[in-house]
Amino acid sequence: MAWHERNRGGRCRPGLVSGALVVVGLVSAVLGFLGSTVAPASAATLVKVDGSSTVFPITEAVAEEFQKTNAKVRVTVGISGTVGGFKRFCVGETDISDASRPIKLSEVELCADNRVGYIELPVAYDGIAVMVNPKNDWVDHLTVQELKKMWEPGAQRKVIRWSQIRAGWPEKEIHLFGAGSDSGTYDYFTEAIVGKEHSSRGDYTASEDDNVLVQGIATDPLALGFFGLAYYENNKDKLKLVPIDDGNPKNGDGPILPSAETVKTSTYQPLSRPIFIYASKKAADRPEIVDFVKFYLTAGRPLVREVGYIPLSDEVYELGLKRFEKRVVGSVFGGKGGSQIGVTLETLLAAESK
Amino acid sequence: MLQRVKKGRATERIVQSALFLCGVLSIFTTLGIVAVLLFETVAFFREVSLLEFLTDTQWTPLFEDKHFGILPLISGTLLTASVAILVAMPVGLVSAIYLSEYASNAVRRVIKPLLEILAGIPTVVYGYFALLFVTPLLQSMIPSLSGFNALAPGIVMGIMIIPMVSSLSEDAMYAVPQSLREAAYALGSSKLQVALRVVVPAAVSGIAASLLLAVSRAVGETMILAIAAGQQPRLTLNPLVPIETMTAYIVQVSLGDTPTGTIEYRTIFAVGMMLFLSTLMLNLVSQWLRERFRTA
């Protein structure tokens, strides 16, 4: 299995990477200049992608593979964040925008003002699993409030026993494990559970290496931890998955276990979400953009799992491809932002393709 | 004839200056390292007060509620080093006494190099040995032991430094003048009495020096602890829970994507400085003790 190589621990923080991108940008500007003196056509074969750092690992992997077979096309992938990505995309600066949520109404308006049509294409699911040791016999499920109680910054050195989480749980220490503060998983988890991105307690075992977390939880009866759902699949026998109750009966009553099914029906909330790329309709007239997007939705499928995400069903990829071929603009989410609860991507896209 | 002498002197000079350069190179490398450490540490202390660094009981520089108290990292380091020395001291001393006082020359010539092999095993191997073998073994005896803990890597680190203790202590004991032993025998002492009441006290400064060197090695050890001790700074003396040592913290931050020039980045230099000062101190004391033993 080669998928350790690009696991999501490798998701970088914008600071460092954008620094690197500046360097890459400078180099490519120089190369571009040299190239333009030799072959004037080279400027046309550039695919510009920017946006979410969550989607970045997938786009980056796809771009890498794509450029192997299309040596003349250069794909640049930025990470300005979903918001920053749309800001550039909606004024026509980029061809494709990576987004970790559907486009928002304000962004829809910005795009409309600049006459930028967008084709919305889901590319994967992002999910986080919460796990305890298999010997742990008291945790049957956790609510989002309980998770928040454990992980919010105020819990630092105060919430240290299981009994503090729920009455009746043992009077024993709780040992927390989680993704390190440099990872996209950490950002998403803190946003979904604590309510504020990049904000949590600091007294837990934090590692960018998922293997360390697996080892820690698997060998410590008092452990609880979280990391990318796709990584759990490889370590099923060593860990006990915890069902999560978000207290909202509309997307499934009671606690829900993460699985391919509950992620796809978006009932495993709030720790799973579809993630997208938005392609500009105007850019879709260019053959290299068409090639890249088609490559993304076909050859890109196995790469999704490789970098630590959950692939969509083949049906959704096909519907996405159809949507792209017909150049269907607009969002199936109606520009409301946030995933629509209890509605699957299949039904949303299928309803539209009729 | 004269020419040959001159030629010989010329080569001599070249060799001499080459050797001098080699010596100077290592000194300058050390100076360079100290300079970088100092530079970044000073920058760190412009933002964090020394008082907070030394007295705050939390270490969370990478998180929302930032604390820069190095005490949890020091307690982690001391805890693992103590476990290591508790293992290495008795085993190392007993084998040193055996090698110096009981073993025949032939036996010593075989056993001493064999013991020293322990010091040659790569520490990453020791690390996984602690994580995947010693910890599960200990868990069958102590059910409350966490998967990452100070005990297992401490024990394994103790095994690693046994040869340091045994070899250097044995040198010190072996150097005790034969006349002292003979005098004790003449007074009717048994072999054990000679070993414990005459040789060991006479060699005590050398033994202490070997122990301090071993402690210094344990304090600076990185790989075993980064692999098996955990990554959670915790102010505790309980060897059964995950902790983090100074060295493991430096590894953790170096592996992430912490941007250079930030306070998070500078913490590793401040911690490195602390580590450098503590091992330097241990080495100096150890050296001073050995000097004393040589003149005694």
Observed structural traits:
heterodimer, A: 354 residues, alpha/beta, D-Maltodextrin-Binding Protein, domain 2, 9-stranded mixed β-sheet, two-stranded parallel ribbon, 13 helices, 11 strands, 16% strand, disordered N terminus, B: 296 residues, mainly alpha, MetI-like fold, 2 domains, 0% strand, globular
Characterize the structure shown.
The complex is a heterodimer of chains A (354) and B (296). Chain A is an alpha/beta fold. Chain A is 38% helix and 16% strand. Chain A folds into two domains: 8-125 and 274-353, Periplasmic binding protein-like II (D-Maltodextrin-Binding Protein, domain 2), CATH 3.40.190; 127-264, D-Maltodextrin-Binding Protein, domain 2, CATH 3.40.190. Chain A has helices at residues 14-38, 56-69, 81-89, 105-113, 144-151, 184-194, 210-218, 229-232, 260-264, 287-298, 301-306, 314-325, 345-353, and strands at 46-51, 74-77, 96-99, 118-132, 142-143, 175-179, 205-207, 223-228, 240-241, 244-245, 272-280. In chain A, the strands form two sheets. In chain A, strands 1, 2, 3, 4, 6, 7, 8, 9 and 11 form a nine-stranded mixed beta sheet that branches. A two-stranded parallel ribbon of chain A has the order 5-10. The longest helix of chain A is centred in the N-terminal third of the chain and has 25 residues, at 14-38. Residues 1-43 and 338-342 of chain A have low confidence and may be disordered. Chain B is built from twelve helices and no strands. Classes of the chains: A alpha/beta (354), B mainly alpha (296). Chain A binds chain B through residues 12-13, 15-17, 19, 153, 156-157, 173, 175, 180-182, 198-209, 212, 215-223, and chain B through 58, 60, 62-67, 131, 135-136, 139, 143-144, 146-148, 230-234, 241-242, 252, 255-259.
